[in-house]
């Protein structure tokens, strides 16, 4: 796979180079030169394949020229150690549960695949790398877990102080070893800006082998395509077109869904469901993309005012507003509506939706209600509800069970280094 920059001012690179660089030097985003389509025979027998088997076929098509099949299989087995089950919630409405990995959020797919891929390339080259990652909550935990105790890898995580849940913070700050957490006085956008500036800084580039782990890294998108195929495999027997509703912040997850679509996955429509940070739903309705400062919500992993994957999303969905708005419906909900959705699903089905998932659930229901065609609706559940326990309990007015894995975490002691949102401070820290 050759990758080009969306800004066309940097040379094309190999997969290995794109994975370690994260961002091209022109500050664009790496995109695959072309998206291969999978053969009809794959879709005819997909219902007989497991998630791992699907993952192997999809990654062979995308990156089989770069990595031999046996190694790809090893990378997948190392990364995807958990399932992505499809569960019926209401008639014609299914949830694709993406929270069965170690950090209990869907970012485990991207982060663990990226970690396995980087480890594979590092084995061959014996170089050392320093991973910088900004997180609005869940990326950090997944990346930290994915790279924890990996030889030759140092991980620095930046998170916005007071803007992640207790459990998320513990996932970021209690591993130790090769993982360091920086508690930034600012927003997620500040954290993301610090990381971007570090990558463009000549002094830092000269001193460290910096690598990015944010959703801008192309290796995080690839594994996120796997579970869209898996949902299709599990639901194909119903014989109706699929609609996917994706709770979105930086739009990596939705971009991956559209990669799956471009590879031939039959999908009727995607729903870009957001909270009050709704620049993409606004774009889809007006044709104008206008980044805004991020606003705090109870679905904090989606508090993104300037979604970094937007250029990819647009290119993948045909390159212009007309093509994008035909494939993707935008919809958004404020916190009160999100809480209503959590309560409604709990009262009517006893299913517990985390605030992010609740937005996708409501977006699916409201969108499908306006469609004439009969469809099978799938909303993506991006995190386990217990990661947002105080919000959940306050919303439902009841105490809720916490999985043991998360309960143990809460007893551990946080270790984080305070940091301002000023790039000079961050740079001085890294150089010290
Ligand atoms: C990161 C995250 C999202 C947003 O995913 P994007 O790929 O950035 O759009 C949604 N929900 C949860 C729980 C997340 O952690």
* Average of pLDDT: 94
Distance between the termini: 38 Å
CATH top level of the domain at 83-105 and 220-402?
A: Alpha Beta
Low-confidence stretches: none
Classify the beta-strand content into a percent band.
Answer: 15-25%
How many E strands? 14
Q: How is the CATH topology of the domain at 83-105 and 220-402 named?
A: Rossmann fold
Largest β sheet strand count, sense and barrel closure: 6 strands, mixed
Percent of residues in helical segments? 40-55%
Could you characterize what this model shows?
By secondary structure, the protein is α/β, with parallel strands linked by helices. It has a domain at 83-105 and 220-402: Rossmann fold. Helices cover 46% and strands 16% of the residues. The chain has 19 helices and 14 strands. The strands form 3 sheets. It has a 6-stranded mixed β-sheet with strand order 4-5-13-10-11-12, sandwiched between helices. The protein has a 5-stranded parallel β-sheet with strand order 9-6-7-8-14. It has a 3-stranded antiparallel β-sheet with strand order 2-1-3. α7 (166-173) links the parallel β7 (153-160) and β8. α3 (51-63) crosses α4 and α5 crosses α10 (218-235). The protein starts with a strand and ends with a helix. The mean pLDDT is 94. Pyridoxal-5'-phosphate is lined by residues 105, 107, 137-138, 215, 247-253, 301-302, 356, 382-383. InterPro entries: Ser/Thr_deHydtase_PyrdxlP-BS, Thr_synth_N, Thr_synth_N_sf, Thr_synthase-like, Threonine_Synthase, TrpB-like_PALP, TrpB-like_PALP_sf. It is an enzyme of class 4 (lyase). Residues 96-370 form the Tryptophan synthase beta chain-like PALP domain. It catalyses: O-phospho-L-homoserine + H2O = L-threonine + phosphate. Keywords: Amino-acid biosynthesis, Lyase, Pyridoxal phosphate, Threonine biosynthesis.
């Amino acid at each position: 796979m050759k990758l080009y920059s969306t800004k066309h001012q940097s040379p094309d690179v190999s997969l290995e180079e794109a994975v370690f660089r994260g961002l091209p030097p022109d500050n664009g985003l790496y995109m695959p030169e072309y998206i291969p389509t999978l053969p009809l025979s794959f879709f005819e027998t997909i219902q007989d394949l497991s998630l791992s088997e699907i993952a192997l076929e999809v990654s062979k098509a995308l990156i089989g020229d770069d990595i031999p099949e046996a190694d790809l299989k090893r990378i997948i087995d190392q990364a995807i150690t958990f399932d992505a089950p499809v569960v019926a919630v209401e008639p014609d409405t299914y949830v694709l549960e993406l929270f069965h990995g170690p950090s209990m959020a869907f970012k485990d797919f991207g982060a663990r695949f990226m970690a396995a891929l980087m480890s594979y390339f590092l084995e061959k080259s014996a170089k050392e790398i320093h991973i910088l990652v900004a997180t609005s909550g869940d990326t950090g935990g997944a990346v930290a877990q994915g790279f924890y105790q990996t030889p030759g890898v140092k991980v620095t995580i930046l998170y916005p102080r007071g803007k992640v849940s207790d459990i998320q913070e513990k996932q970021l700050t209690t591993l130790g070893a090769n993982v360091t957490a920086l508690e930034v006085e600012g927003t997620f956008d500040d954290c993301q800006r610090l990381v971007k500036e570090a990558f463009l800084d000549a002094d830092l580039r000269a001193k460290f082998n910096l690598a990015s782990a944010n959703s801008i890294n192309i290796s995080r998108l690839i594994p996120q395509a796997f579970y869209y195929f898996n949902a299709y495999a599990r639901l194909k027997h119903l014989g109706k077109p699929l609609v996917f509703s994706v709770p979105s912040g930086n739009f990596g997850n939705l971009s991956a869904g559209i990669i799956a679509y471009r590879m031939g996955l039959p999908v009727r429509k995607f729903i870009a469901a957001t909270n009050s940070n709704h620049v993409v739903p606004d774009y889809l309705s007006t044709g104008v993309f206008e980044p805004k400062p991020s606003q705090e919500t109870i679905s904090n992993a989606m508090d993104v005012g300037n979604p970094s994957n937007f250029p990819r999303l647009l290119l993948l969905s045909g390159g212009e507003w007309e093509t994008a708005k035909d494939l993707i419906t935008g919809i958004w909900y404020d916190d009160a509506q999100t809480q209503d959705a959590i309560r409604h699903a709990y009262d009517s089905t006893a299913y517990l939706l985390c605030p992010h998932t609740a937005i996708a659930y409501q977006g699916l229901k409201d969108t499908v209600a306006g469609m004439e065609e009969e469809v099978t609706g799938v909303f993506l559940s991006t995190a386990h509800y217990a990661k947002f326990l105080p919000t959940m309990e306050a919303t439902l007015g009841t105490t809720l069970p916490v999985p043991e894995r998360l309960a143990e975490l809460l007893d551990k002691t946080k270790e984080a280094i305070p940091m301002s949102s000023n790039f000079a401070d961050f740079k001085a820290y890294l150089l010290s």
